[in-house]
Amino acid sequence: MSKRSYVEEALSDWMKGNGPDTDVVISSRIRIARNLSGHPFPMLATSQQAQDVMKQLTAVAETGRLDSCGPFETLELSQLSELERRVLVEKHLISPSLANESRCGAVMLSENESVSIMVNEEDHLRIQCLYPGFQIKEAWTLASRIDDIFEEVTDYAFDERRGYLTSCPTNVGTGIRSSVMMHLPGLVLTQQINRILSAIQQVGLAVRGIYGEGSEAIGNLFQISNQITLGQSEGEIIENLHSVARQIIEHERAARQRLLDESRVRLEDRVLRSYGTLSHAMIMDSKEAAQRLSDVRLGIDLGLIGDVSPQAMNEMMVLTQPGFLQQVFREKMTPEQRDIRRAELIRKQLYSETDHGGV
């Protein structure tokens, strides 16, 4: 797979597939943070030291050790434009932090983009595995396997009492972050979301936006992840998230049913108004697009809208991001120009998706 494919195709292959509970859970992710013993953490490393780490880690893919997990391609951040790096962030293939590290950063991407291995981000190595739907245990199995491959040929920074050592103290211990991206419009519309989120935080989980820490939850998308990495085993961390996410799924489905039972006409009106706006608007900012796409996605999942697939909504959520818009239209845009192009792109996508037939 070429660099062009990674930065020009909105949907990763894994996003096109179906997974369990995809009506509520968009994706499941495991991220493992590791550092090499005897090397300064990236924030303290010189350019030469960072280059040495990058060569050592990317060699693992180049020598074919990762082939059992699928073909990989290594992209050095210094060889990518600012726009291309932004596109990779919008596809969740690299972090905003790595996108800003164009000096000695790299990413090893699997062909279907379900695995992203970042080098010289906050830590020397960050292994990320993404699965569609609610498959957090499956994502952990793959991530652990890749972690074992690297550990066979590198010497990780590890302390018998503290566990794996990381740049940020909150990652010390297991070094893993497990998360699920959830679409929770039912809980938002029934005004239960604050109570649910408060309960989540009380059991040691964090709630963030679609791009992780510091990002805003837009389009009713919430990322639920573990906060604790020290004092619990990997299995306990995964099981805790799995159990809580399962309860949230049931609460969200109950909230959606309540909306159908108690205010179906209002719900249909909201969904169809958003569909109509998306189909005909001439200008639209990213927040409005995210909210109206969320409404339509809810309508699809509840059977209120036909002829539009959930995958099409996933694609439009990526395509309408600022970087991807400029990549699609191959022009640098002002915010207002992006709003005009965003509306144009959504109109075309919906027109194509419904085969001119409407809802």
UniProtKB/TrEMBL annotation:
Binding positions for ATP per the UniProt entry: 27-31, 92, 126, 177-181, 208-213
UniProt similarity note: Belongs to the ATP:guanido phosphotransferase family.
Enzymatic class: transferase
NCBIfam families reported in the protein's UniProt record: PRK01059.1-4, PRK01059.1-5
Domain Phosphagen kinase C-terminal: 24-255
UniProt protein name: Protein-arginine kinase
The keyword Lipoprotein belongs to this UniProt entry's keyword annotation: no
Activity regulation field: Appears to be allosterically activated by the binding of pArg-containing polypeptides to the pArg-binding pocket localized in the C-terminal domain of McsB.
Coiled-coil intervals: none
Source organism of this protein record: Paenibacillus albus
MF GO annotations: ATP binding; creatine kinase activity; protein arginine kinase activity
One Pfam family per UniProt: ATP-gua_Ptrans
